[in-house]
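Class prep. Sample record?

___
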Amino acid sequence: MQPPAPFPPPDADGKHTAIQAADALLSPWVQQADLSLPAGCCGPSPWQGKLHQLPSHLERPPLPLVLFLHGSSGLNEQTRRYQRWLNEALGVATLAPDSFAIPNRPRYRSPATIAEYETVHRLRQAEIQTALAALPLLEWVDRQRLVLAGSSEGAVAVARWRGDEFLGRIIYSWTCEDNYFVDKADNGFAEDCPILNILSDSDPFFGASSEFNRGLAVLGDSRAALREMANARMVILPNAPHTLYNLPAARTHTRDFLLELLA
């Protein structure tokens, strides 16, 4: 069943209907988003909470923002820990929309049909559109220094996004290739887009030996998708779990990528 969504997903050409900033800011995705700000914004300590709980007065000039799309398990302590680390290590703000804040949001249990997966993928694209539309009303965001990141289901939306609003993208645990989870990869990034793609060599969902990919011609990584991209890096972590963005090695690569991107 299609959920009642506040804004439409992209059309067949990947284009998006214009959204007013005030409407976008009031959407459940954005109001219930997990926001994390570094120390000095709302006092001497870092601030973390829902966007709608943010105090009206901030004591800092506009900050770089990492817009993070969570995986199929939703916002949780892992995502919040990742956000806090970005605050502490890099002094950036992070905003993670809540995909499950939409009433009757569709869900699936793998293996599911391609139609079920794609319904969710279209919704995740609309989350990015909605968050971007709200940014003009968030004066603490430096809109010239935006980064798009996501994990697993959220990373599909990151890879497919066709806009040029972001300085770069971080794709965790998604191989950017045709497999059981998508009708087709349909990557939207430009050839010169800076990308960091971090994968497990034994991913239980998207790896070459995944039970869900059985019988499909997959590589289990993004080497084909990123082959012609001079500014893209693929990192494969040995024996890593599917959710890997808080691993020390993943953090090191993320930190280096963001320091270079936001310099």
Q: What stands out?
A: The two ends are 45 Å apart (CA to CA).
